[in-house]
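The instructor's notes for this session suggest beginning with a concrete chain rather than abstract definitions. Hand out the sequence below and ask the class to guess, before any prediction is shown, which regions might be ordered.
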Amino acid sequence: MPAAADGQVLAKAQSQSGQESRPLLPAISPSPSGQPGQPHSVTAGIAERVGGTFDVTSASGGNHAEIASTVTGPAGRIFVKAASGELSVRSLRYELATTRAIDRHPPAVLWQFESDGWLVVGTEHLAGPHPDL
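After discussion, reveal the predicted structure:
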């Protein structure tokens, strides 16, 4: 997927059913729940880490963060969670610490960053259903 003429990174959103929805622009865009989306700095930070433009497929469930999606870019598929609310960020920090503490079991944490009040975590993408805990 090409970058916009002004150099901004564009991400294409896709539903679980595989039907494409509106593009997610790097600026604030509405999420499926109608809440404001991620700021440009979050989208740009993800693009830097996945090697450029990327496609997004939202996770069907099991998420406590504002964003839980499979991101596919030139570097391959990565599972990305991002949170901005106080409780969501705290929960994602706990999940990040737990995942790192049991590092011999997948998924591996590939990267993390914070930007404009958002915590963003990229992990190894694992195909399959969400675990029933």
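Then share the key points. Helices lie at 40-50, 86-101. The first strand starts at residue 11 and ends at 14.
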